Amino acid sequence: MAPGLITLEIVPFKVAAYNKVKRAMDFYDPKNHQDYDFISGTRMRKMAREGENPPDGFMAPKAWAVLKEYYKSLEKD
């Protein structure tokens, strides 16, 4: 329960980040902090705008192509 809010239950969640060793998204393990790259939404959008590709395993290639195409289309406006 949340202090003072007796009807509110706090639900814990795991943080996901890109695991550079596994080359895939993974639940963050603070014992291996150096293995993770936290790719923020801001950084992801910047990469898409600049036509860069994310690291392998970060996102499905077809989904990334859609994202890049969307940002490319914004430049035409």
Low-confidence stretches are none
Q: By helix and strand content, what is the structural category?
A: alpha+beta
Which overall shape is indicated by the principal axes computed on the Cα atoms?
flat
Strand proportion, as a percent range, falls in 5-15%
Strand order of the largest sheet: 2-1-3
Instruction: Please give the number of β-strands.
Output: 3
Radius of gyration: 17 Å
What letter string, H or E per element, gives the SSE order?
A: EEEHH
Distance between the termini: 49 Å
How many H/I helices? Answer: 2
Give the count of structural domains: 2
Largest sheet: 3 strands, antiparallel
Helix content: 25-40%
Question: What number is the mean pLDDT?
Answer: 91
Account of the protein in words:
By secondary structure, this protein is α+β, with helices and mostly antiparallel strands. It folds into two domains: 1-38, no CATH class; 41-77, no CATH class. The radius of gyration is 17 Å and the shape is flat. The protein is built from two helices and three strands; from the N terminus they run βββαα. The model has no long low-confidence stretch (mean pLDDT 91). α1 (41-49) packs across α2 (61-76). The longest helix has 16 residues, at 61-76. It has a three-stranded antiparallel β-sheet, with no helix packed on it. Helices cover 32% and strands 13% of the residues. Keywords: ATP-binding, Nucleotide-binding, Transferase. GO terms for molecular function: adenylylsulfate kinase activity; ATP binding; sulfate adenylyltransferase (ATP) activity.
